[in-house]
## 1
Amino acid sequence: MSIDTETARRVAKLARIEVAEEALPALASEFNAILGFIEQLNEVDVDGVEPMTSVTPQRLTRRADVVTDGNQQAAVLKNAPDAREGFFAVPKVVE
């Protein structure tokens, strides 16, 4: 597949990128280089290769999924402009 300047103009418009008219041929050339590299990647035989999310095999540490109150009430209320009886105090807005 070959990208021409008209296609490069359309891609720039879709990406909401302003590209000067004289820069469109260079942009089309860069797109063609990228597509050429992708074609090279398509030639690689990946049969039997397991997908991976990292270059090093590692498992994330997990914690027990237990519901708690967080024990952070004092720290959260410390920055409140007005706190009473362990809650945020706000002005009354309904009459």
Note: The helical segments are 5-14, 24-42, 73-77.
## 2
Amino acid sequence: MSIDIDTARRVAHLARIRVEEERLPHLAEQLSSVLDFMEQLNEVDVDGIEPMTSVTPMALPRRKDGVTDGGIQDKVLANAPDAREGFFAVPKVVE
């Protein structure tokens, strides 16, 4: 696929980048090269291939999922403007 200078100018405008008029032919050539490469990638048969999240297969480390109270109640409540009996105290909003 070939990108003309007017299309390169429009792409530069949409990307909000300033490209000097004499650089537009070079930009058009580069954009055409990118699109040509993408066309080559479309020719690759990927049926039955699972998508990858990384080029090196690895399993993410997992921690044991255990329910706790966090163990830092005092630290959390220290930031509260008003705390009573181990809870945040808030003004009554419903009569």
Note: The two ends are 69 Å apart (CA to CA).
